[in-house]
Design brief:
Elements: E1 7-17, E2 22-25, E3 32-35, H1 43-49, E4 57-62, E5 76-80, E6 95-100, E7 103-112, E8 116-120, E9 130-141, H2 144-149, E10 157-158
Parallel strand pairs: 3-10
Antiparallel strand pairs: 1-2, 1-3, 1-9, 4-9, 5-8, 6-7, 7-8
């Protein structure tokens, strides 16, 4: 079966940046599952997988526009330390769900001063060209329920309820598969190391 609209796809992937540095790999872990055509995947990678079949191997070069978009300076801002309430020991790298004009948005702490904290709402890979080395493992027709819900019902699925924010190639706000990585509540911080933006490969 070919990868087309509303097929359930299982892949292994290796992701590197423009300098050839390894960012993520699923080859020594669980494969990634996603629903093709449901906007679970970044556009450039999903387009390259269209029409492929199980057993196919491909290298996909994706520019930033077709990956996580350009870097927006306006999404980086300095906020008062008091905005974090009773949260102690705020350090660079910590991630939170913040209330913004566009609703809840994951942000990462990049700098901590005496009275202010700099946070960045850009995806960690925004503005970067990426290279995916992909092996298609399995392609099947998605169930009616999976199509209705917009994601695959399986461990490690892209766009589903149980997937990793880090090292799992996908993610949506507030989901992971190791015990609740990021908070859906703007008053509660995400655990350190959780971006909430979606890991590599996923659109969100």
């Amino acid at each position: 079966m070919k990868i087309t609209q509303h097929t359930a796809v299982s892949i292994h992937y290796r992701l590197t940046n423009a300098q050839g540095e390894l960012i993520e790999s699923s080859f020594d872990a669980e494969p990634m599952l996603y629903l093709h055509g449901a906007e679970n995947m970044i556009p450039g990678l999903e387009a390259a997988l269209e029409g492929k079949v199980a057993g196919d191997k491909l290298e996909v070069n994706v520019d930033s526009e077709q990956a996580y978009g350009p870097y927006h300076d306006g999404l980086k801002q300095e906020v008062p330390l008091s905005a974090f309430g009773d949260i102690e020991d705020i350090v660079p790298g910590m991630r939170f769900i913040a209330e913004t004009e566009m609703g809840q948005r994951p942000v990462q702490v990049t700098q901590v001063n005496d009275d202010t904290v700099t946070v960045d709402g850009n995806h960690p890979l925004a503005g970067q060209a990426l290279t995916f080395n992909v092996e298609v493992l399995e392609v099947r027709a998605a169930t009616e329920e999976e199509i209705a819900h917009g994601h695959i019902h399986a461990h490690g699925s892209c766009g589903g309820h149980e997937h990793s924010h880090e090292g799992g190639c996908c993610g949506g706000e507030g989901h992971d598969h190791e015990g609740g990585c990021c908070s859906d509540n703007s008053d509660q911080p995400a655990k350190e190391g959780c971006d909430g933006n979606g890991g590599c490969g996923c659109k969100h």
